[in-house]
Amino acid sequence: MEPDATFILYDIASLKPYTENSCAPNPWKARYALNFKGLSYRTEWVLMTDIAKVRKGFGLSACRNFADGTAFHTLPVLVTDPKDPSSAIGDSFDIANYLQKTFPDAGAGDLFPEQNLDYTLPAHFQSLVPLSERDDDVHADYARFQANVDMAFSVHTQLAAHGMRWDPEVEEAVRAEFLRRIGKKSWDELGIEGEAREQLKASFEATLGGLAALLKRDASGPFMLGAQPSYADIIVGGWLRMMSKALPKGEWEELQRWYDGVFGKLHAALQKRFGEMK
To answer: Could you list the residue ranges forming a coiled coil in this record (predicted)?
Structure first.
């Protein structure tokens, strides 16, 4: 396949304008990867209430399940041939694997260069089930890394809960669905304030310490391999994009300064080089 093929990336519609406010981490991993490879694509925005219908329309199963065993349908989806619905790929890691296999030398080069990705969650998180657990061995080191990164950020997303915004026509339905998923009765219960919030922020900063160490190992930065970006940076970057939009402004500025500013530098570099919205 030629590297100028046109793809369709299905992303989660947030608050309009979508191009400014989009922040779902997994679609951003796919977007960064597409831009890393310098490929032509367009974004199709999907309201959260329509995600299951879109995935089922492409014959894609859910990426994972909720704690109660019900299907969790989410995005991204990448359609690699607009004339062939069966060409749809429904997982951000699978999308990256496909792009590297199909376009190995395109754009910025190798998405999966060899490197040490030894990032271990603190012991009290290790008993949790990884949100992105995989059963294959394609780039297995990156897959394990993603599982740990996803968990590190996910267990602290309560800090960003009240910063998430959606189109007004579906906001009530989306909030109701979020409450159903976690067994809460009111949106206020999702928030966290005062001393409890400070403790969760401290936990978040400590949990990211291992990631910061990877970003500091090559002083030339801003990526884990110095000047060479990789999918490991993109995995972290997808979550940083979410936090940049959903955390209170002052707390996002704090996060960017943690560990000598490595996360702020990584986010800025990814946005500058691979953050174009198409």
So the answer is: none
